[in-house]
Amino acid sequence: MRSLTYVIVVVAIISVMSILLVQENVIPTRHDQTFVLSSFAFENNGTIPSQYTCDGNSISPPLTISGVPQPAKSLALTVVDVDAPKGPFTHWTIWNISTNTTTFSAGEDVMFPQGVTSAGTHGYKGPCPPSGTHRYFFTLYALDTILNLDQNATRSDLEQAMNGHVIDKTELMGRYLRS
User: What's 15's DSSP letter?
Assistant: First the structure.
């Protein structure tokens, strides 16, 4: 009786392991390349040039996207000042970005849906810290869906809509200190 139980347990373990191995080979959980958001205007953890802030032209910086995960159906981008005095300040939200998008030019007139910033405006709002050095996180999300949001969506609305749909994310952080 004990040997029969032993055989059943071994067969069950082998069966489960085989199923997991087959699933792993059929449905890849990762992609070949690393998902990256970068900018030739500033390095990660570097200083954002003033032309992309309220002290300059307040235009969006150039961004480069690479390594988008294969199963992604869309991308979303948020830019947030995590050091704002009243809590995180949203400078930009974009969603339903095509997965074929590889760059955004400086100041580009973005053709994808954009939400409302913490200042109550649409589009990019350049960094403008009241004092001290602030950190600005440009976070790019790979999503398994196309989002259904209207143009008055906030970052909170975007995050709620993305819940359960994020395949991968990448960040680029820039710093700015007003002179």
Answer: H
